[in-house]
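INFO  loader      accepted 1 record
INFO  loader      residues=148
INFO  predictor   begin
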Amino acid sequence: MRIRAAAYCVIRRGSGDAEEVLLSHWRDGSRHGWTLPGGGIDPGEHPERAAVREVLEETGYHARLTGLLGVDSIVIPASDRLRGEGEPLHGIRIVYAAEITGGELTIEVDGSSDDAGWHRISAVPDLRRVSLVDVALGMLEGWRPATA
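INFO  predictor   done
INFO  writer      dumping tokens
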């Protein structure tokens, strides 16, 4: 089984019905969906640094972490892997809260994402999205253990 550690950010702005979340659009061949800005941690890289780096790469924004929301674990069976890698993938996903400190919205070039933008949180259920978005928004309500 392959293990992949990754770090992501939940970045919000506004309040009430106008509250928005920053999402990145991930694409790999015919599979795609909105996700949190973030991604793989490079060898030797601290997860906090990876999260901030990935936000900049995928959205053009400089971010400052404001807290740890939680850690999620997902196992993707070999049969569901995108490129038929032949082994399951265990993803460890570290999710931080963050705020924008500068920059401007810019779409990543030659990366795994092809769009980025602000979406009203109330509209997220209607988006084609990866499961991590729902997991992370649930973390905002308070972390709960996945197993008792």
